Structure formats: C-alpha cells, structure tokens
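Deliverable D5.2: sample structural annotation.
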Amino acid sequence: MASTTPSPAAPGLPGALALAAKVSQALPADSPATWRRAAYRSVLASVLPGAVQGEGHEDADILSQYVREAAAAASTASPEHRDDAFELVLGALLDDWAEEWDMSDDEDMDG
C-alpha cells in the first residue's frame, strides 16, 4: 500500500492539491463540468512549482477571482469556442499571477 505521507522533498504538495480543489469550486454553478477540471489542472500547474520548492501560495481568493473572471469572459464567446476561451483566459490570468509572484520573491531577496 502506498504511503499517504508527503515526501520530505515536496512537503507543499498536499496544500497545492487542496488549494487547486478549493479554487476550482469557485466557478459559477451553471458552468460546464469540463471547466471545473480545466480550472483544477490550470491552478495546480501554476502552484506546483512553488509547492515543490516548499513555498506556500495562500492566494485562494485571488485565484478564485481569476477562475470567475475567466468563466465570465468565456461565457461571452460563441458556444463552440467557450471551452477553449475559458482555458486560455484562465491560463493568461494565472501566468500573470505567477509572474507577479516571482517578481515579489525577487524583490524579497533583494531587499
């Protein structure tokens, strides 16, 4: 049986998984189920690098807002493009968030 204890090499993984699950629940109730999975995967991909390095990302409110903004934007696309629009808009928002996070880390090291 596999151990459920996180490895010492990546103690932040359980927190990253929980954060991604929590944020994916921020979608409006009438959103397609596929968006919940896309949100989970996108958020998890964004926070995993920090989690592996042992850094916490306690930005659930900000990340949840990005998920809602991506859903609102995608809802305005034509039906055949909504899934792609959701994933791409959310990806762009998360990329921007990750860059801001990296920049604030660099400032902390310099300061």
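Annotation notes: The helical segments are 13-24, 33-52, 60-74, 82-110. The chain has a mean pLDDT of 86.
The annotation will be released with the project's public dataset once the embargo ends.
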